[in-house]
Amino acid sequence: MWTRTYLVLLVVRLYLALQPSYIHPDENFQGPEVIAGKTFAFPHHLTWEFTTENPVRSVFPLWPVYGLPMVVLHWIWSELGTNEVPPQVVYYTLRILMFILSFVLEDWAVHELVQSPGHRRLAVTLVASSYVTWTYQTHTFSNSVETLVVAWSLVMVQRILDNKPSSIATFLPQVQSLVPPGTRNHTYQYRPFSLLVLSIATLLTISLAIVVDTSFYQTDSPLLNTLLTNPTFTPLNSLLYNTQTSNLATHGLHPHYHHLVASLPLLLGPALYLFITAPIRNVPRLPVLSAMSGILLLSCIPHQEPRFLLPAIPLLLSSIHLPRSKSLTKYWLAAWIGFNILFGVLMGVYHQGGVVPAQTWLGQQTKLGVSMGEVFWWRTYSPPIWLLDHNPIRTTDLMGIPFATLQTQVETALGSECNPNESVGLVAPYSSMEIDHWIVTSAENQAFAFEEIWRYGQHLNLDDLDIGEEGIWRTLGRVVGRRGLVVWKVRRVCGVRMGEEVRGIMREDW
């Protein structure tokens, strides 16, 4: 029974890993966007973390996680003698890789950390049935990689405490700082040689990271001279940046209790109730102490996002027991299953789900005979530029600017003179009803023609909620009832009456 349950949960994890949902822009712009641009010369956009005078994002961990698979794909395609690797192949290869890493390393780490056979099955099942594992952990977040590194660092410490040989100790020493101080002291007291190994490995790791980052960010001068005079040390830059509240204010400030009252309930759901109310008995001490110390440390930083807590989630889930009461256990299991199905479908399928398919389709538009020089994106997450392949389309991310400003931008791009061969693209959620009015008005005034050329139904834009103005049910009716992402081709009308043509594409029956 347990084996069948685990296999079913594994299939669910693989299915959601292959869905193009888009949880947060950082899953693209802090990893694949950077490395794909360097490896395949795809068009790409570097965010401020990489372009600031003192870069705060290290590329050292990106190369083994994302760079190596891309290099292998590049070699395979070269051996086959075909054209360059399509970006969608790279995208789904990375998703499958993250699934494999999650399935092998995360579940294995939980299996090792929980030594009680009875509790081990519960811990592995809870981790495997969490929507966080299905979605966040199978996306290309740096936090997802951190989850695996932290988990295996704890496995290394556990092996040291159990007096077992651990070759992994030479590969993951830099994360030892996340282990509670009392545990570290105990470790080094009984295995003093490990402190020497830790020091040497940490020094080598830091040195290699500095070399890689310096060569990436400073290409104008000889590497050796730059390393001696002005090396790039991104962890220090990041620390200095994040200690300034004025810098963090640009990303959003949160109270110190935000993780406790918002992030943890969102990630754990009903499991948080068991962690708080049920007595912790016969649970591995190392995971729960590491998780709690990490959460407290991250709570001291005023900018807080749920994904920052990803490394703590499997540790917390492996530290709880089901209620003793069978009836309470039945109700809790129902709540746990419902919670994870709801958020699994939401975050794994629908959340900004049309952005990646739309950008992939636009990258193929020259082959489909669709001619657009510029595409405006409105009310969506920033589209990954590298998915355009080598298409010369210019992407303009308008984020959530006011509708009037959007109109001005589009009209300016089309120019004042009518050219029947000139058009721009507009990508926007179908739930944005302002565009409906714009289409009708443009038809009546014979000013602009809108042609719907692509649509993707599995797209929800949760940033478009306006409950204060519209109310709960009207907002949900619009955002959920009119879910989807639409690509419009917009051009000026050149003396031809377009009213009936434009009104014909306003399909309310979709």
TrEMBL record:
It is a multi-pass membrane protein. The chain crosses the membrane at residues 59-77, 89-110, 193-212, 257-276, 331-350. This is Mannosyltransferase. InterPro entries: GPI_mannosylTrfase. One of its GO terms (molecular function) is alpha-1,2-mannosyltransferase activity. Its main location: endoplasmic reticulum. Its EC number is 2.4.1.-. GO terms for cellular component: endoplasmic reticulum membrane. It is an enzyme of class 2 (transferase). GO terms for biological process: GPI anchor biosynthetic process. It comes from Letharia lupina. Belongs to the glycosyltransferase 22 family. PIGZ subfamily. Keywords: Endoplasmic reticulum, Glycosyltransferase, GPI-anchor biosynthesis, Membrane, Signal, Transferase, Transmembrane, Transmembrane helix. Pfam families: Glyco_transf_22. It is found in: Endoplasmic reticulum membrane. Residues 1-25 form the signal peptide. The lineage of its organism: Eukaryota, Fungi, Dikarya, Ascomycota, Pezizomycotina. Pathway: Glycolipid biosynthesis; glycosylphosphatidylinositol-anchor biosynthesis.
